[in-house]
Amino acid sequence: MNESSGPAPIMAEELRRIAVRLATKAGELVLAQRRAGFAVTTKSSATDVVTDVDRNSEQFLRAELARLRPGDAVLGEETGEVSGTDTGVRWVVDPIDGTVNFLLGLPQYAISIAAQIEGRTVAGCVHNPVSGDTFHAQLGGGAWLGHDRLSGPRSVPLAQAVVATGFGYDADYRARQGEIVGRLLGEIGNLRRLGSAALDLCALAAGWVDLYFEGPLGEWDFAAGLLIATEAGVSTSGLDGHPAGADFVAAGHPDAAPEFFAALQRLGAGTAARTFAGQRSGAL
């Protein structure tokens, strides 16, 4: 990346360093509060849970961003968006991605922090506080797990591919997702449902899974992970002629992606996600 094609690399590097530092600190807070005990409530449905640790983590991140980067906008899963001034920087924060896993004690949850300049994600970090895995990237600078550079998934035929996905909180839509996955299972090698979109995208970047799809998602679910995956060389699509985004994200090795995207298109995965997203927005 050069200065004429996007934000200066020095700016993206600064934002990446902040994201890594704050995600790691928030991870320490999350682990400590889990050991101390926590309260649980629900949001959009009985399966859409939130804990006081989610809220405390987001409050910590917002306070630190206000201290380190006054004037930046912040979008967080739990408390919405706060507009910035004239910095042009917007942070997208998920204080715990994989709250159900956190609740159950499954070690597959993460703090996800992305930084955007004029709507373009330029830096991000996804940190798993249990394993200590810290994935990070900046635009044009590659994707990393700690100090190790990531090169994306292996290139295998669809019939051999291990596919990661996730399911929504709405029961009717989840049943529709199950129908699509049921038909897809006859065309792929196997399926993984790990419970964190951010970590799924990072697993793809690391080559721990071969392909990934899910939607709709909150921007906080995928903003950092999508940058990490693309910086590792992954191809992405939102299907139905759309780019990857909140309605739908599909991703994989450039060699395997076209066949995978075509299969998802044929099964109506993108259309189903977009239809549900529209219905959900209309109900708000």
UniProtKB/TrEMBL annotation:
Domain of life: Bacteria
Cofactor(s) of this protein: Mg(2+)
Pfam families listed in its UniProt record: Inositol_P
Stored CDD domains: IMPase
Sequence similarity: Belongs to the inositol monophosphatase superfamily.
Source organism: Jatrophihabitans telluris
Catalysed reactions, as listed in the record: a myo-inositol phosphate + H2O = myo-inositol + phosphate
EC number of the protein: 3.1.3.25
Entry-linked InterPro entries: IMPase, Inositol_monophosphatase-like
Record keywords: Hydrolase, Magnesium, Metal-binding
The protein, known as: Inositol-1-monophosphatase
